[in-house]
Amino acid sequence: MQKETREKMGVLLGLVGVICFSLTLPSTSIAVEYFGTTVAGLGRTAVAAILVAVILIVRKEKFPSLRQFKSLLIVALGAVLGFPLLTSWAMKSLPVSHGAVELALLPLATAGFAMFRGGECPSLKFWISSIIGSAAVIVYALHLGFGQLQFTDAALLAAVL
User: Fold this and answer.
1) Are 101 and 137 in contact (CB under 8 A)?
2) What total number of domains does the chain contain?
3) Which of 47, 58, 82, 104 keeps 20 to 30 A from 131, CA to CA?
4) In this structure, are residues 28 and 91 in contact, taking their beta carbons and an 8 Å threshold?
5) From CA 74, how far away is CA 76, in angstroms rounded?
6) Sequence-distant contacts of 91-97: CB under 8 A, at least 24 apart
7) Residue 104 and residue 137: Cα distance in Å, rounded?
8) How far is 83 from 80, CA to CA, in rounded Å?
9) Residue 114 domain boundaries
10) Please, are residues 156 and 109 in contact by the beta-carbon 8 Å criterion?
11) End-to-end Cα distance, the chain
């Protein structure tokens, strides 16, 4: 595959990922109504786990090493348990629009973890713009919450981390 084709494919897959992720809170909010917070949170994790298992088996991927497994376990605690359960719990009482504003902090959190765990070093411009954007998100979230953070806001912020 040529470089230009790979780049276009990367952009396309990134767009698909953004579109799918944009449906996270609306679909979680609907699922919580019908299934409750725990089933809604862990149910989507179970579906994803089945799909990933099928892909790994079909591709005959190797089992991760012990060192890789430790890193995967850390990621799984946040991505498989923390994020789904905390967002499900928050969507029980917060509007989706409010939750979406707080999840706008995810890019900054992702970059922070990439720096601490992966040794990546984004530019100073990135950090300045990310901090300004995150401050705007927090101010807006406070405005939506009538000047105070609710306990469910804390759940969403914990889900981001």
Assistant:
1) yes
2) 1
3) 82
4) yes
5) 5
6) 91/25, 91/28, 91/29, 91/32, 92/32, 92/37, 92/152, 93/150, 93/152, 94/150, 94/152, 94/153, 94/156, 96/25, 96/26, 96/29
7) 7
8) 7
9) 3-160
10) no
11) 36
**How does DSSP classify residue 148?**
S
Average pLDDT, the chain: 85
Residue 131 has pLDDT above 90, yes or no: no
Enumerate residues 6+ apart whose C-beta is below 8 A from 91: 25, 28, 29, 32, 99
- Report the candidate in 98, 71, 87 with the shortest Cα–Cα distance to residue 32: 87
* pTM for this predicted structure: 0.77
| Whole-number Å distance between alpha carbons of 100 and 86 | 14
Pick the closest to residue 145 from 102, 85, 111, 105 (CA basis).
102
Closest by CA position to 83, among listed 48, 34, 118:
48
pLDDT in tens, 14-58: 889 888 888 889 999 999 999 999 999 999 889 888 999 999 999
